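Changelog-adjacent note: as of this version, every example in the card shows the full chain rather than a window. The one below runs 263 residues end to end.
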Amino acid sequence: MALTTTLTVRRDPAVRLGEDRVRLLEAIRDEGSIAAAARRVGLSYKGAWDAVNALNNLFDRPLVAARPGGRAGGGAGLTPEGEDALRALTMIEAELSAAVGRLERHLGRGAASLPSLLWSLSMRTSARNALRGVVESVTDGPVNASVALKVSDTVTITAVITRESVADLGLAPGVAAVALIKSTFVILAPGASPPRTSARNALSGTVAAVSDGAVSSEVALDIGGGKTIVAVITRESADDFAFKVGDPATALVKASHVILAVD
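Full-length structure tokens:
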């Protein structure tokens, strides 16, 4: 994922100067007409004129001096104030990009790069459990592939997905990915050593929280390494097992119920 900066100047919510209008100013400076500038930045002739009028209204003095000439193109250029504004905005954009580059290099020395950090913070999904990790191995098969994702020093989650998905996502050892698991797909068993099952993932931990509802209960399990997995089970099952904070338990998840996502 490429990380870029965007500069927006606002006087009120309806009047703004953003990257698209900075590019329009550059095009007017270089092309010398509204029509040619509109073609260069992919705007309609009317759209370019509307943007010019908005820009001139945004500042105390006009940034663009134009002589309407219809679609054939009248002459246009930046005023001295427009030249000054464009230079200032270009300098600010360059400084912002340099600052983000420094942040990215600095954070890159740690556990997460700036792009992955921002992506993690902004990602929204209906799956209650989203566990970031690094692909440890990919085992190919005739139709599907088994992908082992290391989410902490002590926890590895296995997902079975199609070979096509492996290729599309670019999954390989060392690639960062996120395991998405719906809370209703998580089966809870009491104790740290449950009976053997066909579920590929058996994540042992300690009950961290229990929230009971009229029909279902939500149980959060601390699986170590700062990671938590949440299960939604029936209220009847919760009452039968009587899960309490601090109790040992194991989360069972079928490998086919794990969805993998990448930046």
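Structural remarks: Residues 80-107 form the longest helix (28 residues).
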